[in-house]
Amino acid sequence: MTNKYLLAALGGVLAASSVTAANYDLYITGSTAFRPNVFSACSKIFDGGVPAAQINSSGGTPGSGDNNWAMSGPCAVAGITSPDTLTIHGFFTGSVQGFHALKNNDLLGFVGSSTSSTIVSNYATIAFSDVNSKYTIAPVGGGFNEANVAIQPFVFVKSTAPTGVSKIQNITFQQIQSMITSGMAPLSYFTGDYAHDYGTNVYLLHRSLDSGTRVDSMQETKSSGTVAINYWDAPTGTFITATNRGPALYGPGYVGGSDLRTALQGGDPRNQSISYLSFADARTILSSTNWSNITKYNGFYPVANWTPNVNAPGMAGGAATNDFSPVSTGQYSFWAFEVLAYPKSTQWSSQLGQNLNYTTQLTPLLNRLLGTYSGTALNGSIDYEIELSKTVTPYATAVRLNDGDVWRSSVGGTIAP
Fold first, then answer.
1. Relative to the CA of 377, which of 45, 177, 243, 325 has its CA 20 to 30 Å away?
2. pLDDT digits 0-9 by tens, 85-131
3. Rg of the chain taking only CA atoms, in angstroms
């Protein structure tokens, strides 16, 4: 009898233990351009530097290019220790959509757990963006902080058409300005060869209004007015005109960097187009290690010592890293601060669907994500991940704040030392 009662008591203890194990959730949305850096930092913020479990929306192991994933494990950084777990859900919908979702408690479709690809509806906790919200159609307002995380370089790129735009070597902000309202310009405008190139039109492909990259490009080139939207429709081999929200062929209302990258690919000689992309997206137009379709902007590439049309691990002709000195010294100006938007403590109670304690769990999580590398390993820090990426293929696609020798107080604004 004694043994039976003892076993029953132990069973009750074990049952109670399983009930008391808690899961806490961090829901991340926003920038598609910066998602590789976010993914790398999040995957290392757990105890032991790796998540205990992870999955993407397709049911496979997630990678840095995935738009929707979940990962979980104990996380002492946030005071969440075994048997409790932290699950980080990442669903990257674009910078401006991220701001709107954060401020307005929009329901988003996140991967629900780290062991099942089932999509569940929930609200964002934080959002990354390639642009400060005040320059967008969705400013988050005074209830949220926007912290600079890194410097995000952008580039102008040309399609893979074998003739025509392949001759373009440099693009200026005045040329982009002139294409905003018309959507196109003669090739001779870029090459100076009126006799041979005037009859070929070059089209400017756009992201949709909810893209931070689009906002950055408009601010950088001082462009305004009604935007003429053109997209390359590969099945018909023609350019189509669409609304600012994006055509149905790219999905419901959103044109992402990967969509534009796809539109620039294929090598169709009729596809005489240029566009703007994040540095990371531009890398894979031709292959996973090829930046050859990037053009100079106002006479400079974003990295130093690069030989055009080189297919190499690093953009700088196979160097051990990408040398962003033209960005950090102010020669190359097409960049913006990547920002992290998150609720202030006074706003936290108004954010729906959150189970983290603001002071003891969310705050230390954000402090680690925003932590500055100072020579000692700092797992879970985006700044540290950028430092590590300098010597790991495909090499850095963003610049640490501390590596910049110049500053700007507004998006597309004056650059000063």
1. 325
2. 999 999 998 899 899 999 999 999 999 999 999 999 999 999 999 99
3. 23
In a domain, 413, yes or no: no
- Please check whether residues 175 and 220 belong to one and the same domain: yes
Q: Which of 74, 37, 67 is nearest to 52 (CA)?
A: 74
pLDDT digit string, tens, across residues 198-227? 999 999 998 877 788 889 999 999 988 778
- Which of 299, 315, 336 marks a domain boundary? 336
- Euclidean distance between CA atoms 69 and 62, whole angstroms: 6
271 plus 138 within the same structural domain: no
Q: Which two tokens stand for residue 256?
A: 């992402």
Q: Does residue 238 lie in a domain region?
A: yes
CA distance linking residue 2 with residue 9, whole number of Å: 11
Q: Whole domain around residue 91: which residue ranges? A: 8-149+338-397
Instruction: Clarify whether residues 219 and 329 are in a common domain.
Output: yes
DSSP 341-403: EEE-TTTGGGSTT--S-IIIIIHHHHHHHTPPP-SS--TT-HHHHHHHHTTSTT--SSB-GGG
pTM assigned to the model: 0.88
- Please give the structure tokens belonging to residue 3: 């043994």
CA end-to-end distance (rounded Å), the chain: 82
In a domain, 404, yes or no: no
Please say whether the dihedral angle defined by the alpha carbons of residues 223, 227, 231 and 237, taken in this order, is positive or negative: negative
Interatomic CA distance for residues 412 and 138, integer angstroms:
18
